[in-house]
Q: What sequence folds into this?
């Protein structure tokens, strides 16, 4: 079992006065893929927002052993955690190229950045075609690719994705998940994926965490969860 | 608790009223003049508070309506021969109309843009008053002179005393009207529109009608104040109605207390006496003391927003509440 | 005809000043959704700083450069100290705070430099340009400087990483944070930049309208009109609006309503645009209502 790149213990989070997470514990293996599953409103997106410091949170959160629970969002990002938010968060008024350049904003290694641009365009050729297009005019799938590409340009060690399949056609989703699998295998980027589409996520992940009303209902190796009919039917509806 | 709160408020109000009524009988002519000015400013501030404090529509241009009231009154008196006590109400009705009409485009603007548009109004007003085409009526850059009215019916009052009481009557009546408005259905509608415009509309409040009417009423108050000012001061001229006047109103409103009618008296005292004190200081400190009102206004605006957003009135209420709690807990 | 050309030329000169101020206003608006009512007074104060430096013997362009730098720093400080604490406050609060700032700068200028109207030198010399009397050297210089400022600002935002980061921070602060941009500092830089270019506007305007603490009220109003006309969320639309307002002010003032009521032209433009086409000529978003 590799060491954990992300350790979360007792994570609580609030939207204003309303508490949305009530003590969540889980880990992401270094180089592994963890899926966060659960029904709508269970608190999956909240977890990622809390980890990125976008909402009020408390608890013991460690990235590579270093506590990050009190850091500002931009500092967390600079540590090597890339968060692709729900809704993609692309800069819709900027071009594809500018979106990508923003991903590399904090990096100083120009050569490596150029190489990464090539890699990313190789992974998502459609983005290369639409390089100078305004991001807001891209299709949903292309925007998702753009969001992931931008995150990759940060050279993250941990990539967190919020519902990457949302609103996308199955073929596009398959393409994206293939790419994610490649990123994880070939470059060792750890993945933390929040997904509604449980079967897709379980196929990709080594580990899964099931969230219910702001707390962890179940967690374990994804294969076990996938193969356990009772659990699947009870928690994942299929 | 409420009873005690209400009782202390009534005591304060009575004390103020008694003082205000007795004032003309022990104050000098100049102090009466200042007293009248304070009442005039308080009336204008009441109007602005209705619009901005209670209804949330930001106006940086109420000096314009003050000007319409002032010039309207002066023109009616000098060019049409109306007596002053008829000219003021008539000019105020015109102001209501102007405010109501301005309220229509204001509906489209929304918060910040309304502030922008009223700012433009304030800056443009002195120039518009000097417009050659209106010279015959407005007296151009020289403005218009008015003679001071004397007490009617041979009452044993000096002109200053009479004018002060005349202003006091208007102030009392308009305060009473505003107070009733705010406490009733209309007031609740205005506040609802300010805080939750969508919810208010879905509950059947005709927001556009309320907002434009509120603008009209607010302008009416400013117009009454302007008209009173014209006869108390004895003349109207374009420079007195520019941006500094509108901004002074804003200061008086904020310092006195947004959405506090009683606070407007304090606001009026503030904007009347701070420049006054500064003027006196120029004797000792020279020209640079002219900068004092602006500095005080600026610092206070920011300070009030940071520390006591509801102005002096809010601070007093908070202090009174704390004192009351301390009192009752010590029993 | 000669009169017309002259009006056009001086309209463009002041229009350049309005264009720069409008640009400053729009920069802050894009980043914060707020209109900086104190922009004019800040520019006026900067102009006094320049005047003071020149009065102490500094050559023009050195004083100019120093003023721009000092204004930039001042803008950053103001954002951090005065504006930041009110970041989440309602609109009325922000308006009041900005008016408060305006009062303070106005009073400071009056206190430090007095209330008498002063003349302010132009760096552009006395020889008329184009061998004619249509455009004074300063007017031509002012137009040139305005265009330079617009070009430099455009290039900065379009081609530099920092400019890109500032644009991103203005458009989408959350996503910007997620890529590591320190959004707070981007705001401060935006204010600094706005203050810097405002100071240039003041220094270009002063030789024309003369230096006194109240010189910028009218100019600010015209800049507002230009920004609204061009589109308050489009920097270069706003700059175009500034030039347009400058020319319109002169032409309408001379041929239609008379020069004493020129300010009402600005008022009319503002109201007309906000009523009929709130997003201005080039603005993209419709004005948010809700």
A:
């Amino acid at each position: 079992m590799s060491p954990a790149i992300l350790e979360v213990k007792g994570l609580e989070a609030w939207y204003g006065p309303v508490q949305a997470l009530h003590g969540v514990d889980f880990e992401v293996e270094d180089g592994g893929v963890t899926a966060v599953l659960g029904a709508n409103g269970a608190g999956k997106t909240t977890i990622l927002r809390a980890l990125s410091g976008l909402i009020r949170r408390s608890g013991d959160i460690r990235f590579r052993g270093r506590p990050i629970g009190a850091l500002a969002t931009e500092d967390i990002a600079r540590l090597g955690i890339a968060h692709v938010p729900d809704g993609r968060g692309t800069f819709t008024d900027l071009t594809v190229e500018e979106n990508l350049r923003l991903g590399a904003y904090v990096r100083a290694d120009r050569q490596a950045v150029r190489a990464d641009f090539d890699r990313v365009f190789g992974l998502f050729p459609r983005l290369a075609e639409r390089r100078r297009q305004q991001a807001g005019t891209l299709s949903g799938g292309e925007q998702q690719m753009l969001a992931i590409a931008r995150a990759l340009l940060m050279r993250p060690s941990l990539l967190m994705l919020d519902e990457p399949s949302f609103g996308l056609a199955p073929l596009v989703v398959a393409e994206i998940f293939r790419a994610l699998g490649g990123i994880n295998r070939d470059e060792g980027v750890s993945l933390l994926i929040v997904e509604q589409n449980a079967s897709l996520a379980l196929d990709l992940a080594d580990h899964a965490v099931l969230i219910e009303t702001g707390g962890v209902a179940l967690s374990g190796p994804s294969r076990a969860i996938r193969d356990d009919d009772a659990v699947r039917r009870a928690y994942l509806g299929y | 608790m409420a009873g005690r709160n209400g009782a202390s408020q009534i005591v304060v109000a009575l004390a103020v009223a008694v003082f205000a009524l007795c004032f003309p009988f022990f104050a000098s002519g100049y102090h009466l003049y200042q007293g009248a000015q304070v009442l005039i400013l308080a009336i204008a501030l009441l109007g602005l508070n209705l619009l901005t404090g209670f209804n949330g529509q930001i106006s940086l241009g109420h000096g314009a309506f003050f000007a319409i009231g002032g010039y309207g009154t002066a023109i009616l008196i000098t060019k049409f021969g109306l007596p002053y006590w008829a000219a003021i109400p008539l000019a105020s009705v015109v102001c209501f109309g102007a405010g109501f009409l301005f309220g229509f485009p204001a509906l489209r603007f929304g918060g910040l843009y309304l502030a922008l548009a009223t700012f433009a109004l304030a800056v443009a007003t002195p120039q518009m008053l000097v417009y050659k085409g209106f010279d015959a009526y407005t007296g151009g850059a020289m403005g218009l002179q008015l003679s001071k009215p004397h007490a009617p019916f041979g009452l044993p009052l000096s002109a200053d005393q009479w004018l002060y009481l005349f202003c006091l009557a208007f102030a009392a009546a308009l305060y009473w009207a505003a107070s009733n408005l705010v406490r009733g259905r209309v007031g609740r509608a205005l506040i609802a529109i300010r805080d939750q415009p969508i919810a208010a509309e879905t509950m059947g409040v005709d927001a556009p009608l309320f907002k434009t009417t509120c603008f009209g009423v607010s302008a009416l108050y400013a117009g009454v104040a302007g008209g009173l000012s014209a006869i108390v001061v004895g003349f109207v001229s374009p420079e007195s109605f520019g941006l500094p006047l509108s901004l002074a109103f804003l200061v008086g409103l904020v310092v006195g207390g947004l959405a506090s009618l009683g606070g407007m008296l304090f606001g009026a005292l503030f904007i009347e006496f701070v420049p006054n004190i500064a003027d006196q200081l120029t004797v000792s400190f020279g020209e640079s003391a002219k900068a004092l009102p602006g500095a005080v206004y600026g610092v206070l605006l920011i300070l009030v927003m940071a520390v006591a957003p509801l102005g002096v009135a809010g601070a007093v209420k908070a202090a009174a509440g704390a004192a009351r709690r301390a009192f009752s807990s010590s029993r | 005809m000669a009169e017309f050309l002259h009006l056009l030329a001086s309209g463009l000169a002041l229009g350049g000043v309005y264009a720069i101020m409008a640009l400053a206003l729009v920069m802050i608006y894009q980043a914060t959704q707020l209109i900086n009512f104190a922009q004019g007074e800040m520019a006026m104060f900067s102009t006094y700083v320049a005047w003071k430096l020149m009065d102490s013997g500094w050559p023009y362009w050195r004083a100019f450069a120093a003023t721009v730098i000092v204004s930039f720093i001042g803008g950053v400080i103001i954002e951090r100290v005065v504006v930041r604490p009110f970041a989440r406050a309602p609109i009325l609060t922000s308006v009041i705070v900005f008016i408060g700032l305006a009062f303070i700068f106005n009073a400071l200028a009056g206190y430090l430099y007095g209330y008498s109207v002063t003349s302010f030198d132009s760096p552009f010399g006395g020889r008329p340009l184009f061998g004619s009397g249509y455009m004074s050297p300063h007017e031509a210089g002012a137009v040139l400087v305005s265009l330079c400022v617009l070009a430099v600002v455009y290039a900065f935002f379009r081609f530099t990483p920092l400019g890109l980061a500032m644009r991103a921070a203005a458009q989408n602060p959350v996503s910007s944070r997620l890529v590591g941009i320190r959004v707070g500092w981007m705001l401060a830089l935006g204010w600094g930049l706005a203050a810097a270019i405002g100071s240039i506007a003041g220094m270009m305007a002063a030789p024309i309208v003369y230096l006194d603490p109240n010189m910028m009220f009218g100019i600010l109003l015209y800049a507002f009109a230009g920004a609204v006309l061009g589109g308050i969320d489009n920097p270069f639309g706003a700059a175009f609006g500034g030039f347009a307002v400058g020319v319109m002010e002169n032409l309408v003032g001379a041929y239609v309503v008379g020069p004493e009521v020129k300010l009402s032209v600005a008022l009319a433009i503002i109201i007309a645009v906000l009523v009929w086409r709130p997003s201005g000529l080039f603005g993209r978003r419709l004005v948010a209502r809700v």
